[in-house]
From TrEMBL:
InterPro entries linked: LysR_HTH_N (IPR000847), LysR_subst-bd (IPR005119), WH-like_DNA-bd_sf (IPR036388), WH_DNA-bd_sf (IPR036390)
HTH lysR-type domain: residues covered: 1-58
Gene Ontology BP, a term: regulation of DNA-templated transcription initiation
Entry superkingdom: Bacteria
Family, per entry: Belongs to the LysR transcriptional regulatory family.
A Pfam family recorded for this sequence: LysR_substrate
The protein's name in its UniProt record: LysR family transcriptional regulator
Annotated organism of origin: Pseudoduganella buxea
Keyword entries, A-Z: Activator, DNA-binding, Transcription, Transcription regulation
Length: 308
C-alpha cells in the first residue's frame, strides 16, 4: 500500500468519478484504475461500486476512507512540522460542538486571521461523540469537548465553565413570570435533548442522578437547528447553555430560566491527542483559543460562561 494510492482513493470518493478524479490528479484514467485495483487486492476487499452514474463507496470503502483521510492528514502535519519556520504556518483543523460554535467559532477565526495569517484554520462542526473519535484518529488536530470524566486519552486545557438553563418558547406554559426554577421542576417538563452519548445530556443525567432525580419524557434530537425548530413548534422545552439560542432570546421568541437546587454547568475544554504531536501551527491555535475564550468570558460576550 502506497500513499499515492490513498490519495487516489480519497480523490475518487470526493469527486464521485474516476474520470473527474483523474483530471484533478493529472493522472491517466487507466493508471488510476490500475492503482485502485491494486489497492483493493492488497486489502482483500472491494472499496467502490462502479455504476453508469459514477462510483459509490462500499461499506468497506467507507471505513477505509476515514482511515485514509486520517493518514494523509498526519503525513501533511509531519511535513509541515519539519518545514515550518519560527513563524507558524500550515493548516490546522479544529472541531467544535454545535452548541459551542455560535459563541467561539467566529471570534477564534477572526483572531487567527489577525495574529497568524500564514495559518489556514479549518473549523468543523460535529457532535461531541464524533469529535472525540476524529481526534483519536488524527482527522482533527484539536477539538473542544466537555469534561465528562472520559477525556483521559487527551491532553486537556479548560476554556470555561458554562451554565445550563431551562429554555422554552416565550409563550410556553412552563413557569410564566419566573426567572429561576429548581432542577426538579425543570425535569418534569417534556424535554428535547441530545442523545445520551452527545452534548449536554450526560451532564444533565449525572447531576440529576446525584440529586436523586430522573428525567421524565425526553424527545431526542442531536441537531441544534432541528432542536430549536422543535422548541418553536411547542413540542417541549430543553436544558442548554444560552449561547446557541441567544438570537431567539434577544428577539423575544424564547426565554431562558436559571436552574438552581442544584444548578447545572459543564466544563468546556480544549483537547489534543496525547499520542500525535501538535505542529507549531496547531500549538499556536491552541494557545489562541485559550486567550479568545478568556476574553469572551471576561467581556461577557460568551453568555453564561465564566473562567475557571
Amino acid at each position: 500500500m502506497e500513499l499515492r494510492q490513498l490519495r487516489y482513493f480519497v480523490a475518487i470518493v470526493d469527486h464521485g468519478s474516476l474520470s473527474r478524479a483523474a483530471v484533478v490528479l493529472h493522472v491517466a484514467q487507466p493508471a488510476l484504475t490500475q492503482q485502485l485495483r491494486q489497492l483493493e487486492q492488497d486489502l482483500g476487499a472491494q472499496l467502490l461500486h462502479r455504476t453508469a452514474q459514477g462510483v459509490h463507496s462500499t461499506d468497506a470503502g467507507k471505513v477505509f476512507y476515514e482511515h485514509a483521510q486520517a493518514i494523509l492528514k498526519q503525513v501533511a502535519d509531519a511535513r509541515s512540522a519539519v518545514t515550518q519556520s519560527a513563524r507558524p504556518s500550515g493548516s490546522v483543523t479544529l472541531g467544535l460542538p454545535h452548541s459551542i460554535s455560535g459563541a467561539l467559532a467566529l471570534p477564534l477565526l477572526t483572531a487567527a486571521r489577525q495574529h497568524y495569517p500564514d495559518i489556514t484554520l479549518q473549523l468543523t462542526e460535529e457532535l461531541t461523540g464524533n469529535l472525540a473519535e476524529q481526534l483519536k484518529s488524527g482527522r482533527v488536530n484539536l477539538a473542544v469537548l466537555f469534561d465528562d470524566g472520559q477525556l483521559t486519552p487527551f491532553a486537556t486545557t479548560v476554556l470555561a465553565e458554562e451554565s445550563l438553563c431551562f429554555i422554552c418558547r416565550a409563550d410556553a406554559p412552563w413557569f410564566p413570570g419566573r426567572d429561576v426554577i429548581t432542577l426538579q421542576e425543570a425535569l418534569q417538563a417534556t424535554l428535547i435533548l441530545p442523545g445520551l452519548q452527545h452534548g449536554v445530556r450526560p451532564r444533565i443525567e449525572a447531576v440529576a442522578k446525584a440529586a436523586g432525580l430522573a428525567t421524565g419524557e425526553v424527545i431526542e434530537i442531536n441537531s441544534i437547528a432541528i432542536l430549536k425548530s422543535a422548541l418553536m413548534a411547542g413540542m417541549g422545552a430543553t436544558i442548554l447553555p444560552v449561547a446557541p439560542v441567544l438570537p431567539e432570546i434577544d428577539r423575544g421568541a424564547m426565554r431562558a430560566l436559571a436552574i438552581h437546587g442544584p444548578a447545572i454547568s459543564r466544563t468546556v475544554v480544549l483537547c489534543a491527542s496525547r499520542t500525535l504531536p501538535l505542529t507549531n501551527a496547531a500549538t499556536a491555535i491552541s494557545r489562541l483559543a485559550v486567550d479568545v475564550a478568556s476574553e469572551l468570558c471576561s467581556s461577557g460576550q460568551w453568555p453564561g460562561a465564566t473562567l475557571r
